[in-house]
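Running co-folding for (S)-3-Hydroxyhexanoyl-CoA.
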Amino acid sequence: MSEVVAYTREGNVGVISVNYPPVNALSHAVRAGLVSALEQGQKDAEADILLLVCEGRTFIAGADIREFGKPLQEPGLPDVINAYESSDKPIVAAIHGTALGGGLETALGCHYRVALASAKVGLPEVKLGLLPGAGGTQRLPRLVGAQKALEMITSGNFVGARDALALGIVDAVEGGDDIRQVGLAYAQKLAGEGAPVRRVRDISDKVEADKGSDVFDQFRAGLAKKARGLFSPFKCVDAVEAAFTLPFAEGLKRERELFKECMESPQRAGLVHSFFAEREVSKVKGLAKDTPVREVKSVGIIGAGTMGGGIAMNFANVGIPATIVEVKQDALDRGLAVIRRNYENSAKKGKLTAEQVEERMGLIKTSLSYDDFRDVDLVIEAVFENMAVKKEIFAKLDEVCKPGAILASNTSTLDIDEIASATKRPEDVVGMHFFSPANVMKLLENVRGSKTSDEVKATVMAVAKKINKVGVMVGNCHGFVGNRMLHKRGAEAMALVNEGASPQQVDKVLTDLGFPMGQFAMSDLAGIDVGYRIREERRNAGEDVPASWMDKLVEQGRLGQKTQAGVYKYEEGSRAPVVDPEVEQLIESFRAEQGIVAREVTDQEILERCMYVMVNEGAKILDEGIADRSLDIDVVWIYGYGFPAYRGGPMFWADQVGLDNILAAVKNYNNTVGGEQWKPAPLLEKLVAEGRKFSDL
Ligand code: 3H9
C-alpha cells in the first residue's frame, strides 16, 4: 500500500485518504497512490460509494510545484482525474483548508463535493505563470459559466465555501472541523439516496448558454491593461474558450497544449522562483529554528509623518495597540488625520466597515512624552535621516524603555551599529526598514547590527509575518540591500540623461521590463529633494559629486509630485507624469553649460546600465554577506520596488540573461563610463569563471 494514500472502509463507504504534509501536494507518490486506492475501491464489493479526504491542515493544495521542470513520471494528473471521473461508483470529495489548482481539479473530477464552511477553493495556477492543466479550464466553466470561470482562472483568487456553494462548485457546506466525519456522513447520505454517478464533463447547460458569447473578447481587452506583459492570463482565456468551442476531450487536449506553452515560458520559471523565494526568506541563515521569540503586544512609534503613520496602521490592522510620539501636538493631529483618511478611503471602497475603522483608530494613541513608551515591547523610530537626531532619540529610549524592549530604527540608509552605540543595550537594537506607503508595501527589510541578538532577529522576522509583511533579514551597510542597489541605478539613470537620453526614454525602458514605474517617475513620487540633499551633504563633505540637471530642478522648486512638478509635471489631483518641455529645455541648457554634446543613447544601453549596475552591486552585497542568498535580494526588489515577479527578481533575472553576458558589459562600461560602480564584482567574475549562477550559491 502507498505510504501517502491509504484505502480503508467504513461501513459501505470506501475511504481514500491522502497524507502528504505539509499541503498534500500531488507529487508522483500521491498520484500513483490515488490510482491504486481507486482501484481498490472499485474492487471492494462492500463499498457502495467512495470518499476522497485529506489528513492534516488542508485538502490537496495543487500539483507539487517542486516537480516542475523535471521529467514527468506517470501517471500524469489529467489521467488520474479522468480515472476518478470515469469511476462507476460515485466519489465524494470532502474539502477542508484550501483546495487549490490540481487539488480543486481533482475534486472537480469527483462526482460530489462537500466542504467545511472554513474551506476555500481556487485555481491559482496563473500566479505561477501557468493555467489549470488537469481539466480545470474545461470542468469549472461547466459548473459556473464563462464569466465566473474566466474571473477565477485569470485572477487566481480563492472563493470561500459559501460562495462556492452558491456558484455550484460544491454541493454542500457543513460547519465543524472534522472533515472525515463530515465527508462520511455526506457520503452515507448520498449512498442511502442511491445518488448516481454525476460527471462534470457531461454537464452542458452552462456551456450551451454561453456559446458564441463575446465575453472572451471582452476579457482579453480588459486583460490587455490589467495583465500587461504577462503571458499566462491570455492563455487561460484561450483554454476556457475551448470549453465552449470544442467537445470535452478535444478541449482537454487544447488545454494541455496551452499548459505546456506556459510551463516552458520563462515567466513560469520566474514566478515559481518568486513563490519559493518568498517562503525561503523567512528561514534566516544561521538563526536556529527554535530561537526564542519575544512577545510583541504593544508598540511605540516615533514620528507621525507618512512613514510613522503607515507603520502604526500595520499594527492596528492586526489588533496591536500603537502609541505615536511627536514633539508637537499639531504634528500628531495632522498624522492622525491622515491615518483616519486612509482608513475611511478603505471603508469607501468596501474593504472595511465603519466599526472596523473606529476599532483601528481606537488602537492608535498619541503622546508628546517618551514616558508612554515605558511598557511597550517594541519601539520603531521613524524620524528624518539624521544620525545625531537618531542617536539622541535612542539614548532617551534606552533610559525609558523596559528591559527586553526592542529598539528599532526605520532608517533607510544609516548605520545601525552607530545608532545602537547610543544605548547600553546594542543587542536589543535592530533596523526595521518599511517601504512607502508603509501600510501598503509588502516588504520589511530587517537590518541586523553587529551586536543584535538572535532573539531580537527572530522576533522582528516574526513581527513581519504577524503584520502580513514579507520580512527579509539583511546586514548593515549604507542603504542596506534595496536602497544601495537603487542608488546605483539612480546615479546611472541621471548620467544617461546627462549624456543624451530623455527621462521618459529611461523610464520607458524600465516599465517595458515590467516595473510599475520608471526611475524618474519614482523619484518624483518620493520627492527629488531627498537625493539632492544627499548629494549636497556629500559635496559639503568634500566628495567629488558631479553637477546634475536634477539639482537645477530642485533649485527651481520642482520637488516632485508634492509640488506638481519635478522631472515631470502633474495635473491637479493626478499622479500621472506628463512630459514637460520646460524640463527638456533645462536639460539642454545644462548640457550646454557643461559642454556636453548630446548623443543618441539606445534602449539597450539604458537597460544594461540601469540593470547591470544593480546586478554588479548585488554581487558585491552577496560577497560582503549583506544579503545571505541571492533570493533575499530578489525578494527585496519584488516586494519593495515592484520588480516584476515574473522575472524572478534582479539576481534570478541576471541568471537568465547569462552572467557571462553581464560581466562582459560590466567590463565594457568600466572602460568607457568608469567609476566604482562599474568595477566588476569579484563574485561575478568567479561565478562566470566557474560557469555557475547566483542561484547555484
Ligand atoms: C497546479 O496545480 C498545476 C495543475 O493545474 C496542473 C498540473 C498538471 N507544491 O505557503 P506556506 C509548501 S499548480 C509543493 O508557507 P500557508 C511551501 O513551499 C499549483 N510545495 O503555507 C511551504 O514549504 P516549506 C497550484 C508546496 O499555510 C509549505 O508548503 N497550487 C505547495 O501560508 C507551506 O506553505 C498553488 O499554487 C505546492 N503546491 O499557505 C498553491 N504549496 O515549509 C500554492 C505549498 O518547506 N500554495 N507548498 O517552506 C499556496 O498558495 C499556499 O502554500 C497554501 C498554504 C495556501 C496552500
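Result summary
The two ends are 39 Å apart (CA to CA).
The chain has a mean pLDDT of 95.
Job closed.
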